[in-house]
Amino acid sequence: MGGYIGRMKQVLIALAVLHFAVHPVRAEDKDAPSMMERGAQQFLEGLLLEMEPAFESMRGFMDEMGPAFADLMGQIEDWSAYEAPEILDNGDIIIRRKPEEISPEEEPPQIEL
After folding, report:
1. Structural domain boundaries, residue 12
2. CA atoms within 13 A on the CB side of 109
3. Does some domain include residue 76?
4. Which residue did the predictor score with more confidence, 68 or 23?
5. Range with the poorest average pLDDT among 22-31, 68-77, 103-112
6. What domain count does the chain have?
7. What is the pLDDT of residues 17-53, one digit of tens each?
8. Residue 61 domain flag
9. What sign has the CA pseudo-torsion 30, 33, 37, 43?
């Protein structure tokens, strides 16, 4: 899924650059679309066609994992008590609980020998 996020960042950056490149041209001539505007529109249409399989795959992933994720969210009360998720070489994801810190007021009970 990390590949999707990187790809989506690239898409958003490209869209932002195109928006700011085309916007001033549109302000100068409102009657006819400029070559820059037409090129940007064709580029965006092609980009959407190329990204459609990734969107469909992501939608399938969310349909499958959504209920399990909602269940997990209901089970964990305090996310600050957990470390950042770790992805193992085999693809498993581990979310470890942070070690509990003992405050100076709460010393562990002493055991007499």
Report:
1. 2-94
2. 3
3. yes
4. 68
5. 22-31
6. 1
7. 767 666 665 555 566 678 888 888 888 888 888 888 8
8. yes
9. positive
CA 113 to the chain's CA centroid: 55
Tokens for 50?
């190329």
Is a pLDDT exceeding 70 seen at residue 2?
A: no
State the amino acid at position 75 in one-letter form: Q
| Residue 78 located in a structural domain | yes
Work out the pLDDT band at 102, boundaries 50, 70, 90. low
| Residue in the block written with tokens 């405050």 | 103
Q: Which of 71, 70, 96, 92 is nearest to 81 (CA)?
A: 96
> How far apart (Å, rounded) are the C-alpha atoms in residues 9 and 37?
22
| DSSP class of 69 | H
Confirm whether 113 is domain-assigned.
no
Strands (E), the chain: 86-87, 93-94
Confidence of residue 15 (pLDDT cuts 50, 70, 90): confident
The sign of the torsion formed by the CA atoms of 56, 57, 58, 61 equals positive
